[in-house]
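Query structure, 238 tokens:
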């Protein structure tokens, strides 16, 4: 364990120039791994014609999405103390870092991208959260029997995942098997990328609430702006 982080950073360094940067969330200080050579990395991808589908191929997992903080604050309302949390499509694991302050018994952050998983694991180790947060590869688009050994969770959450329409049906099947009775699934999506039909589809299988939250966040230029997010909350039908 002591040597895992240096080895992980060495592996990451084969593809990216990185550095840990501060991330202060209310009264807690974290440091997260950030790509320093993003422009060069994207230029390399373009030169190699490695960008077939921007939504899948670009390193969106490396971005700190404001929706993670919106969803993180919402998690506090669901009595997290002593409960379990699964983060889907977690990228570099920001939502799980936010949630680590709330008293969860255990947290799993997941993704399908190997670089994202390396960054998430590095963030967990660097912030000394390896006893609380586990990082796993999880693909909800696989047939449901592929996840038979995977546990169920009290809370399942994802930020900026629902814009991938092809995931909607397999995601609902996954939730049906891995969201505990009485549990809650929460999704946060920037209003500009909302997919209203997901809530309509989900309502066939779950109790569904669909609403909006407005927050103030800084844009890429560091200027404060108001952002609107769609919040979708699912619970098993009684």
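Result returned for the query:
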């Amino acid at each position: 364990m002591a040597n895992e982080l240096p080895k992980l950073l060495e592996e990451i360094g084969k593809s990216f120039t990185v550095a840990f940067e501060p991330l202060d969330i209310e009264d807690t200080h974290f440091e997260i791994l950030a790509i320093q050579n993003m422009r060069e990395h994207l230029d390399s991808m373009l030169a190699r014609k490695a960008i077939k589908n921007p939504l899948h191929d670009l390193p969106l997992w490396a971005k700190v999405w404001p929706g993670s903080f919106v969803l993180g604050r919402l998690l506090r309302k669901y009595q997290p103390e002593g409960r379990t949390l699964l983060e889907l499509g977690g990228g570099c694991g920001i939502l799980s870092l936010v949630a680590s302050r709330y008293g969860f018994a255990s947290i799993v952050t997941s993704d399908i991208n190997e670089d994202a998983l390396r960054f998430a694991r590095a963030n967990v180790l660097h912030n000394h959260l390896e006893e609380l947060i586990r990082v796993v590869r999880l693909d909800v688009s696989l047939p449901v029997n592929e996840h038979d050994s995977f546990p169920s969770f009290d809370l399942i959450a994802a930020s900026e995942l629902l814009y991938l329409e092809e995931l909607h049906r397999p995601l609902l099947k996954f939730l049906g098997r891995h969201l505990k009775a009485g549990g809650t699934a929460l999704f946060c999506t920037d209003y500009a990328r909302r997919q209203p039909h997901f809530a309509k589809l989900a309502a066939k299988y779950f109790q569904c609430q669909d609403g909006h939250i407005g927050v103030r966040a800084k844009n890429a230029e560091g200027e404060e702006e108001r952002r609107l997010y769609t919040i979708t909350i699912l619970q098993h039908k009684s």
